[in-house]
Design a protein that fits this description.
The structure holds 2 protein chains of 2 kinds. Chain A has 19 helices and 4 strands. In chain A, strands 1-2 form a two-stranded antiparallel ribbon. Chain B contains 7 helices and no strands. In chain B, helix 1 runs antiparallel to helix 2, helix 2 packs antiparallel against helix 3 and helix 3 packs antiparallel against helix 6.
Chain lengths: ~500, ~220
C-alpha cells in the first residue's frame, strides 16, 4: 500500500509531462496531492507497513516527515493553480531588471513538482540506506528545473549553484554510506552485511566504532549541505530567493526536512550502537553555528525572500541543536520541524503574493501592504510572529521545549547562546518585516482583489501553527514520543 | 589479479594527473572517460560470490562512465563551442604540485584506516581517495561550468572506486541506482551548461555573480 505513495505521484508526474491542457494538469496536480494526503492518513492508521521486501517501511520518524511533506504539498498545489494562471504565457519582462524572458513550459514545471513529491516520499519511506541516498539525490534532480522556472540569468545561477553544491554534498554522504558498509564488515564473513536499516539496527553493537563515527561525520556534512546547515548553506539563499515562491515554500518546508531525516537515520544507528554521545558535539556545533550565521545575515538583509531563506538556515540550526542536546529536547526538536515547516511555507507563499503585488523583493520598497493587500499583509504579520517564536504560536512551544531540554541536560552555555541568537533574530526580522505592512501604500498602486488561491493555503497553514501553539493533539504527542525514542531519547 | 589490478590503478593515478594539468576540454573529457572505463575493468576483477554480478556491473560502468557520459559532455561543448579552460583559478603547475601532496595525503589516510577485510589491490583505497580529491579540486579551482561538471564526474569516479573495494558488501541494485543518478545529474548539468552559454555567451561560472550578499558579505561559491 505505501509503495503507491511513491509510484502514484511518479506516474502522475510522467503523465503531466505529456498533458497539453492546463485544466487537465491542474486536476492531475491537485488530485494527486489530495490522493497522497489521503494515502498518508490511511498509512498512519495502519500498523507498521512494509513493502518492496523490506526496502520501504513507515516508522514514527518517517511518518512525521511524510505527513509534513504531504500537507505542505497539498497547500502548495492549491496555490500553484492560481499562480500558473496569473503567470504570463508569452515572453515577459523581469520584475527587477526589466529584460524579457520566457518561462519554462508549464507541463515540465507541474511534472517536476509531482516527481519531487514522489522522491520526497521515497526519502521518508526508505528503510535501506542506499535507497535513501538515491531518493535524496532524486529530490535534487527533480527540483533543479523548478528553481529554473523563470528562465533568466539569476535563477540559472541559483540552479547551477544548487545542483553542484548539493551534488557534491550528497556525494560525501554516499562516501559515508560506503564507510558504514565497511563498519558492518565482519572479518570472518557472514552475519548482517546489508544496508537495510532494520538489520543494521539489530546488529549495531557489532559495528566498527571508528568507521561508524567517520561515516556519521560524512553523512552529517553531506546531508547537512542539503539541509542548509552553515557553513555548507551557500546554495540556499540563492535558490530560495530565485525560485517561484511556492517552490521556495516546498524547499524550505519539506526538502530541508528530508535531508535532516537522512542525518537522523545515522543518529538512530549510532544510538543503537551505544555511541549516541559522539553525535551530540558535532550536531550542537553545527546547530549553533547555523543560528549564528543566520542572525548575521538577517541583520539588515535588504531582500525579504533572502531573509526568509536565512531564517530557514536558523531553524535548521535549531533542529540540529535540539537533537544534539538529547533527552527532552528531542521531541521538542521534532515538533519544531513540524511548526517551522508550516510557518515557513506560509510565509514563502505570502512573499509570493507581495512580490506579485509590489514587483520587488526589496523590503524597503514594500510599504503599506496592509492597505494594498490587506489579507496577505495581515497573514504576513501573523506569520512573522509565528516564525519568530512568539506565543501563542506553535514555534514558541517547541522552542521552549528545546530550551527546557538544554537546561535539564546541563548545557547552560548552549542554552544562553540559543536564547541570545533567537532574540537577535527576532529584532532583526521585526525591523525588516513590520515596516512592510505599515504606513501608506505607494502612490499609483490601485487596490486589486486577492484571489482565494493566493491567501487560503497560507491561511490554513497559519491556522495549523496557531492550533499547535495552544494544543498538541494526543496522537501527535504520541507520535513525537515514539519518534524521539527511535533517536535514543526517552521522553 | 594483483599485478594487473595494480597496473590499472597506476593508470587511474596517471589520468588524475593529466586531469589536473590539462586545459583542452576535449582531451579532458576523453581522459575522464578513460578513467571511468578503467574503473569498469577493475569492477570485472572483483571475485567471490558476486562474480556474475560483477561482470554486469563492469559492462554497465564502461558503457556509462566510459562512453555515454563523456559523449554527453562532448556534445555539450560542441554546442557551446568552447575549446579550453583559460585562466583557471589555480594554475596548472600549482595544481600538479598540490596533487602530489594530496596523493601523499591519500596514501597516509588509507594506511591509517585499514579495511577490515578486502581482496582488492592495496592501491585501490588511496587511488580512489586521490581521484575524489582531483574531482573536488576541479570543481573548486576551474572557472568553466563544463569543467566543474567534469570535476563532479571525476569526484563520483573516486567514490565509485572506493565502493569497488567493498563491492561484495553492497547490493548491485544500489550501485545501479548510483549510476542512474549520476547519469541524470550529468544530463541535467549538460542542459544547464547549454543554457548558461546561450544566455550569457560564456560559461564562466565566476562571472555569474548577480546573486550573493552586499560586497564582502558572502564568499561561499561552489
Amino acid at each position: 500500500m505505501i509503495a503507491a505513495l511513491v509510484w502514484g505521484p511518479a506516474l502522475a508526474g510522467g503523465a503531466a509531462f505529456a498533458t497539453r491542457s492546463r485544466r487537465a494538469r491542474e486536476v492531475l496536480l491537485v488530485g494527486t496531492a489530495l490522493g497522497h494526503a489521503a494515502g498518508v492518513g490511511a498509512a498512519a492508521l495502519a500498523p507498521a507497513a512494509r513493502a518492496w521486501r523490506g526496502w520501504l517501511g513507515l516508522d514514527a520518524l518517517g511518518l512525521l516527515f511524510l505527513a509534513i511533506t504531504s500537507a505542505l504539498f497539498l497547500a502548495a498545489s492549491l496555490y500553484t493553480v492560481g499562480y500558473l494562471r496569473r503567470e504570463p504565457a508569452s515572453r515577459h519582462s523581469d520584475l527587477e531588471e526589466g529584460f524579457a524572458f520566457s518561462n519554462e513550459p508549464e507541463a515540465v514545471f507541474v511534472g517536476c513538482l509531482l516527481l519531487f513529491l514522489a522522491s520526497m516520499t521515497l526519502v521518508t519511506l526508505a528503510r535501506h540506506l542506499g535507497l535513501l541516498w538515491v531518493a535524496v539525490e532524486a529530490t535534487t534532480l527533480s527540483t533543479a528545473p523548478l528553481i529554473y522556472f523563470h528562465r533568466q540569468h539569476r535563477s540559472l545561477e541559483a540552479t547551477w549553484k544548487y545542483l553542484l553544491v548539493c551534488s557534491v554534498g550528497i556525494g560525501l554522504a554516499l562516501l559515508g554510506n560506503l564507510f558504514l558498509a565497511v563498519a558492518s564488515m565482519q572479518p570472518a564473513g557472514g552475519g548482517a552485511e546489508s544496508m537495510l536499516l532494520d538489520e543494521m539496527l539489530k546488529h549495531a553493537a557489532g559495528l566498527r566504532r571508528e568507521w561508524l563515527e567517520a561515516s556519521f561525520l560524512l553523512v552529517l556534512v553531506g546531508y547537512g549541505t542539503k539541509m542548509g546547515l552553515a557553513p555548507m548553506h551557500t546554495w540556499l539563499p540563492d535558490a530560495h530567493s530565485e525560485s517561484p515562491s511556492l517552490v521556495s515554500a516546498l524547499l524550505s518546508g519539506a526538502l530541508l526536512n528530508c535531508a535532516f531525516l537522512g542525518i537522523l537515520r545515522s543518529v538512530e544507528l549510532l544510538g543503537a550502537a551505544g555511541d549516541l554521545g559522539f553525535t551530540s558535539g558535532p550536531l550542537r556545533a553545527l546547530g549553533l553555528l547555523s543560528m549564528g550565521v543566520a542572525a548575521l545575515f538577517i541583520l539588515r538583509q535588504p531582500d525579504y525572500k533572502r531573509m526568509l531563506a536565512y531564517s530557514s538556515v536558523e531553524h535548521m540550526g535549531v533542529l540540529a541543536l535540539g537533537v544534539g542536546l538529547g533527552g527532552a529536547a528531542v521531541p521538542g526538536a521534532l515538533l519544531h520541524a513540524l511548526n517551522h515547516s508550516l510557518a515557513k511555507a506560509m510565509l514563502f507563499l505570502l512573499a509570493g503574493n507581495l512580490l506579485a503585488r509590489f514587483a520587488t523583493k526589496r523590503s524597503a520598497e514594500v510599504r503599506g501592504a496592509l492597505r494594498a493587500t490587506p489579507i496577505t499583509a495581515a497573514l504576513w504579520l501573523a506569520g512573522f510572529f509565528a516564525i519568530a517564536g512568539s506565543p501563542p504560536f506553535g514555534l514558541f512551544v517547541s522552542e521552549f521545549a528545546i530550551l527546557r531540554g538544554a537546561l535539564a541536560s546541563g548545557a547552560s552555555a548552549a542554552a544562553a547562546l540559543y536564547l541570545t541568537l533567537l532574540g537577535v533574530i527576532f529584532v532583526a526580522m521585526a525591523a525588516g518585516v513590520l515596516p512592510m505592512a505599515l504606513g501608506p501604500a505607494p502612490a499609483g498602486l490601485r487596490p486589486k482583489p486577492e484571489p482565494w488561491s493566493a491567501w487560503l493555503p497560507p491561511a490554513l497553514l497559519g491556522g495549523a501553527v496557531l492550533v499547535l501553539g495552544v494544543w498538541v493533539p494526543a496522537p501527535l504527542a504520541r507520535l513525537l514520543e515514539r519518534a524521539a525514542a527511535l533517536l535514543g531519547a526517552a521522553g | 589479479m594483483t599485478s594487473f589490478g595494480a597496473a590499472l590503478l597506476a593508470a587511474v593515478l596517471l589520468t588524475d594527473f593529466r586531469l589536473l594539468g590539462g586545459s583542452r576540454l576535449v582531451a579532458l573529457i576523453r581522459i575522464a572517460g578513460a578513467q571511468g572505463a578503467l574503473l569498469g575493468v577493475l569492477a570485472a576483477l572483483a571475485q567471490g560470490p558476486a562474480a556474475d554480478l560483477a561482470t554486469g556491473l563492469a559492462v554497465g560502468t564502461i558503457a556509462l562512465k566510459g562512453l555515454l557520459l563523456p559523449q554527453l559532455l562532448q556534445r555539450a561543448i560542441r554546442r557551446v563551442e568552447i575549446r579550453r579552460e583559460v585562466e583557471p583559478i589555480v594554475g596548472y603547475s600549482a595544481s600538479l604540485a598540490l596533487g602530489v601532496l594530496a596523493l601523499a595525503g591519500a596514501g597516509w589516510v588509507a594506511g591509517d584506516l585499514p579495511l577490515p577485510r578486502s581482496d582488492a589491490p592495496a592501491l585501490l583505497v588511496p587511488a580512489s581517495l586521490f581521484t575524489g580529491y582531483t574531482g573536488l579540486f576541479l570543481v573548486v579551482a576551474r572557472r568553466k561550468a563544463i569543467t566543474q561538471a567534469l570535476g563532479y564526474l571525476v569526484f563520483e569516479n573516486g567514490i565509485y572506486g572506493f565502493g569497488l573495494a567493498i563491492a561484495h558488501e553492497e547490493p548491485l541494485l544500489v550501485q545501479l541506482g548510483v549510476l542512474l543518478d549520476l547519469l541524470v545529474a550529468v544530463f541535467v548539468m549538460g542542459i544547464i551548461v547549454f543554457h548558461i552559454q546561450r544566455d550569457f555567451d560564456h560559461i564562466d561560472v565566476d562571472r555569474l555573480d548577480a546573486l550573493g550578499e552586499a560586497p564582502g558579505a558572502e564568499v561561499g561559491r561552489p
